[in-house]
Amino acid sequence: MKNLIKLTKYFGIIIGTLFLALIVLGLSDIGNKYDELAQDKFRYLEIDNNRIRFLQEGIGKDIILLHGTPGSIEDWTPIIKLLAKSYRVTTYDRLGHGYSTNEDYSYHLKDNAELVNNIIQKLNLQSPMVIGHSYGGSTVAYLLANHYNDSLKYMIIDSPLFNYTPSGTYKLLSTPLIGKGVGLVANYTIAEQQIEKGVKSSFTNQSKSKLSELVNIRKKIWLQPKVLHSKAKESVNYQTDLSEISVKYSSISSDVIVVTGKDDIKTFYSECQKFSNIVPTDSLVVLENTGHYIQFDRTEDIVQLINDKMN
Questions:
Q1: What's the angle, vertex CA 300, arms to CA 252 and CA 85, rounded to 5?
Q2: pLDDT in tens, 284-304
Q3: pTM value?
Q4: Could you give the C-alpha distances from 154 to 89, 93, 107, 249, 264, in angstroms and in order?
């Protein structure tokens, strides 16, 4: 009996120590990056208490691009150069992603919609076309549902619009007190394999060498505790956010085009189709032979669709 009491006591001490260690690790900034020194084309913008990495290229009518979760400016690489030939293209790392900070961020679509508005004002963008991929597209849906600016043109590229179920891993990573610490541990253990698996399944029309390059770029950026935590928190809040805005879709009056892929396993085809059936001003484009990252797999098609809307 005494041995059992001792064992229970030691076990409690070990658990308590591990719990405390995770809290301490979570409070640290180990493994996070806030500067991309190798690329001088990127700039930084101060908004409220955050430092946002952004990229702006080209001259002409304005276009702003919103990436998914996780994600970064690099999610738009294929189309930026093509669009910059005719337009002024602006994109940025969302809060907690890429090389941006995440101070005072509650990890909701509302925060991201407010950030879009702030960036448009700060950079003096003139009636920009707002384009979002994945979580960025859900942010576009938030703007549309809340009538941010009904005179603008919008595009949603393969996004959850009604339903999203977070994995058990993301629920753990979002846990108060220890979630960030778990993210730091995951950064050096299982996260790398999970990122590689997830990225490879999200692309279709990429060569083996190109796919390897895409995976390595995302490992470099996504393997940050702040990114893992941001992704987790956004994931657990996602369903609540979508439920709040989806009841407003029938009131959308803006010009919006929704692009998705035909394969419902690799894309959010069903979600986009359902949205299209509800929104009276929507145009739905379904492309074949593409994964979730349509801007990579069908680059020319996306650019053409944007050109058609802008002209």
A1: 90
A2: 999 999 999 999 999 999 999
A3: 0.90
A4: 14, 19, 22, 14, 23
